[in-house]
Design a protein that fits this description.
The chain has helices at about 1-20, 25-50. With about 55 residues, the chain is an all-alpha fold. The model has no long low-confidence stretch (mean pLDDT about 80).
Length: about 55
């Protein structure tokens, strides 16, 4: 879960910097790509959800 939140934060920061700074539009694009990848990752984890692996003893 912390990886999901970290990637959301990184995407947000890159998007803000890319939007605010002149000539750094590519950061906005990279932020959008990171956000999309994070949403796909989150959806995949949510879909797997309840299954827990047993630890062999």
């Amino acid at each position: 879960m912390s990886l999901f939140l970290l990637l959301i934060l990184v995407a947000l920061v890159l998007g803000i910097i890319g939007f605010a700074a002149h000539g750094l539009f590519y950061l906005l694009v990279i932020g959008a790509v990171v956000l999309l990848a994070d949403l796909v990752y989150g959806a995949a984890r949510l879909r797997r959800g309840g299954r827990r692996h047993r630890i062999a003893r």
